[in-house]
Amino acid sequence: MPAVATGHYTRRMHPDSRFRRLLPAAAIAIGGTLLAAWLAHGWGERRELARQGAQSKQQIALHARALEQLVDRYRALPQVLALDPELRAAVAGSVGEAERQRLNLRLEEANRTARASTLTLIDRHGTAVAASNWHEPGSNVGEHYGFRPYVRQAFEEGQGRFYGIGVTTGVPGYFLSEVIRGGDGEPLGVVVIKIQLSELEQEGPRIDDDTMLVSDRHGIVFLASEDDWRYRTLRPLDPVVRGELDATRQYGDETLQPADITPLVEDGAGPSLASIAAPSRNGEWLWVDAPLHETDWTLHLLRDVESAMASAGRQAATAAAVLWLATVLLALFIEQRRRMSAMRQRSRAELEALVQQHARELRSARDGLLEAAQQADSGLSRQLDHLPQGVVIIDANQRVIAWNQRYIELFRFPPDFIHVGRPIEDVFRYNAQRGLLGNGPVEDAIQRRLDHLRSGKPHTRESEKEDGTVLEIRGNPLPDGGFVTSYADITSYKTAARELRSLADALELRIEQRTADLEQARSDAVEANRYKTRFVAAAVHDLLQPLNAARMFLSALRSRLAGDEQRELGGHVDAALAAQDAILASLLDISRLESGTQQVNVRDFALEPLFEALSREFGILAQARGLALRHVPTRLAVRSDEALLRRVLQNLLSNAVRYTTRGCILLGCRRVGDAVRIDVWDTGPGIPLARQREIFEEFKRLDDSSDDSGAGLGLAIVDRIARLLGHGIDLRSRPGHGSVFSVTLPRAAADAVIATTPAHDTPIAAHEPSPLHGRTVWCVDDDAQSCAAARVLLERWGCDVPFAGGADAARAQAESGQVPGLVLLDLHMGHDNGIDLFDALAARWGKAPPVILLTADRSDAAQQAARQRGWDFLPKPVRPPALRALMTQALLRAAS
Predict the structure, then answer these.
(1) Which residues contact residue 747 at a Cβ distance below 8 angstroms, ignoring those fewer than 6 apart?
(2) In this predicted model, what pLDDT tens digit does every residue of 67-110 receive, in sequence order?
(3) Which of 102, 337, 370, 675 lies at 20 to 30 Å from 553 by C-alpha?
(4) What pLDDT, on the 0 to 100 scale, is given for residue 632?
(5) How many other C-beta atoms can be found within 10 angstroms of the C-beta atom of residue 735?
């Protein structure tokens, strides 16, 4: 057994064997790295292409909507002009020069307001009677346009749309026409508005590093963000089409050049990858199409994705290679740990067996060992030579009486230096001269060792020599007062332990670095999301300013419209602005919920008042669509934020009304353990299981073909509010059988709810005059359009508006004693704050008049600021009826 153990400690691995063992691991590491990099490179390119395609689809959809809205801005003008009695009389009979000049000036003024290219009045024979460009060399007056499609379409269908190059002016543009009918419905003429192509290119969407094209139904590009694409054909033109283009002179004398496009990767879902030879473009281009509604145009987006795909492929390949190498290194580390652990276990087992054997031998022959040492004439005991450790034995007088050869080899004593009777103090001093006793005073070190031997206490310690050899020293006393000490060489075990610690430290450092990288990436993602949220909130705030002015102007305009047809047209415009208002409000809600600025006021309240209010609010809308909406009365109370819960149920009921064509809608609740589940049932078309998670995402609608307004944000807001409040949202639906949306929230004790009675406004007697007549009102706003719209609307209501302007003008005009009866105040005005500005104005007036805070900031902080000062609050865009009611209440409160 000792011989075997000794052989184990002296065995060394042959270099060729180690190389053969490492060769498969190296082959797996290198081959796996190359394979992982190759596969990841392809995957990264495909993933980047898919990401670019999805991003391009969203981008082109947004810009198609922007382009449609830009064209829609001009559609109402020819419809309004077609109702003008003066224009109808002009095309019904002959027109003299004076009448013609008056019509020219009339069209010129209307065109200046609309900012279009030209406005033209055409009679039933196709001849231009009057035009806004009457004073220019290329005037339309007197020219014949009966062959142009927009004239024929207007006479045949009532309306016309056509893109082409002007016959008279040679300027390209988009023509919108509207027929003028007599009292019997007979077509008398056509009024035409032309929008210049340059204006569409200037006001239309622009995309950095991308190319935007617009083509007609023949595949001819007529609008492009790059000049060399304009008037190119995306597909061959047959002789019939060319004859039609020549007959209508749509593109004048322009030469239509073909575009040379070779598809590389085609995807039936929409985007494709192509190379472009004419006009010359390097690299691979992503090509995405989107049709423009109510036109025969197609919007194209071209994006150079070659460098992005290559970069994504390289990043994926690098990441995969690093991950594979890390996996291989980890596997090698684990394997090395396993081998070292097995080696330590074998060594420990062998050492334990050896120690046990030696202990038995020592216990059984302790006296014999001492006797053999005393009888040895030279002190070199054969009974100790079989031990792998160096052993030395001293007697009670601290003199050497026995040792073995291994002891001489470990300390490299000279011949005949160790002999029987040699004081151990001489041995210590000799070792001290060679620096084997460590630093410090030599005599102190020797004395400490001698005292330890005299104490007769066993000890175990480790000592490292100058050549790096590590010895494990064990000492045990003998019964007669002597001492036996063994020295074992454990250098190989210490070296292996150091290597393992170094490898573990390296792995820990790598883990810390990867963790730091992941934390930085997470921090960057959070910061990017916070920036996006702030951008959306700021953009919505700016968009609400012109929308507020538009709704005020429209309210003033509708009061002046006399005919039913004109009022109906005004109603359509008001509905479109209201839909836009709802979309912007939803975007603002999404921004507030994502940024974490939404304040929550959780309390206990009864459900029945909320159910009654929602039933009244949506019952009228449901009845208008031929539906029945009812709620199940309840006496349950819940714990939640009442305003946010109301918003959730409003969105659910709005979706139910929008997508239910027949049947009924039911609102109710039931107990579920310690919670309450509120259900909204409908008999709509139902939702497939595959789309039930998708519909809670932004801009996802249940039915994309629906003509109903909405941006697909309602259920996204529901999901975010529910997560903010900790409420559960559930959906159960079967296609063809309807859907059930559920909200689960904590139940409260009904007797703990404090009943609240809504405050009623002070009624105004029917015979009393309007409190607004003759009242002095100031409008303080930094948006000029909002001020102009407010002045027109307030003067229409009989108010005196001496001031409507910004902060600096308000400070300049405010004088002591001239206090207005009411102030309409904006909150954010550039560098000025509305609250601070009002304090300065009130100080000059000497009195603080009533205030209505009109702002696009719908945050809880803005509303709280208004409440603290006793002001009324009305968010933009302002609905004129709501503004009039609020002004009346404020003036009545001030008078009382």
Answers:
(1) 636, 637, 638, 639, 671, 674, 675, 676
(2) 777 777 788 888 888 888 888 888 888 888 888 888 888 888 88
(3) 102
(4) 92
(5) 13
User: What is the number of other CB atoms lying within 10 angstroms of the CB of residue 661?
Assistant: 11
Give the separation between CA 521 and CA 138, rounded to whole angstroms. 62
pTM for the full model? Answer: 0.38
Measure the CA–CA gap between 411 and 668, rounded to whole angstroms: 94
pLDDT of residue 586: 54
Give ∠ CA 769-838-868 in degrees, rounded to 5: 85
Strand 851-855 relative to strand 872-875: parallel, antiparallel, unpaired? Answer: parallel
Helix, strand, or coil (residue 127): strand
Looking at residue 582, what is its pLDDT?
55
pLDDT number for residue 761: 39
Q: Give the residue among 147, 118, 146, 122 at the shortest CA–CA distance from 133.
A: 118
Tell the residue number behind the tokens 């002190």, with chain if given. Answer: 379
What is the largest distance, in Å, between two alpha-carbon atoms of the chain?
A: 154
Other Cβ atoms within 10 Å of 333 Cβ, number: 15
Alpha-carbon gap, residue 536 to 862, rounded angstroms: 18
CA 623, 628, 629, 633 torsion: positive or negative? positive
**108-117 CB contacts, 8 Å cutoff, 24+ apart:** 108/132, 108/133, 108/134, 108/135, 110/77, 110/81, 111/193, 114/74, 114/77, 114/193, 115/199, 116/74, 116/77, 116/193, 116/194, 116/195, 116/196, 117/171, 117/173, 117/194, 117/195, 117/196, 117/199
Closest CA to 612 of 640, 635, 590: 635
- pLDDT tens per residue across span 32-46: 888 888 998 888 888
| 480: its two tokens | 């007669």
Other residues' Cβ atoms within 10 Å of the Cβ of residue 518: 10
- Position 758 scores a pLDDT of 41
pLDDT tens, residue by residue, 715-734: 777 888 888 888 988 988 88
- What are the residues whose beta carbons fall under 8 Å from the beta carbon of 479, sequence distance 6 or more? 366, 367
Using one digit for the tens of pLDDT, what is the confidence trace for 280-303? 888 888 888 888 877 788 988 888
Percent of the chain with pLDDT over 90: 13
Residue located via tokens 């001020």: 787
Token pair 């909507």 in the structure block, residue: 65
Residue 124: its H or E element:
none
**CB 151, CB 160: distance < 8 Å:** yes
H runs (alpha helix) in 280-423: 306-375, 405-411
Q: Is 630 exposed, middle or buried (0-12, 13-18, 19+ CB in 10 A)?
A: middle
Residue whose structure tokens are 């805070």? 853
* pLDDT on residue 223: 86
Report the phi/psi class of residue 274: left, alpha or beta, with left for phi > 0 and alpha for psi in -120 to 50.
Answer: beta
Determine the pLDDT at residue 198: 62
pLDDT of amino acid 706: 46
- Residue/partner pairs of 391-397 with CB below 8 Å, 24 or more apart: 391/484, 391/485, 391/486, 391/487, 392/418, 392/484, 392/485, 393/369, 393/478, 393/482, 393/483, 393/484, 393/485, 394/424, 394/453, 394/482, 394/483, 395/480, 395/481, 395/482, 396/480, 396/481, 396/482
| Separation between Cα atoms, residue 490 and residue 472, nearest integer Å | 7
| Intervals of the chain under pLDDT 50 | 1-12, 203-207, 270, 365-378, 380, 699, 704-712, 754-768
Instruction: Please choose, from the candidates 694, 697, 743, 691, the residue with its C-alpha nearest in 3D space to the C-alpha of residue 716.
Output: 697
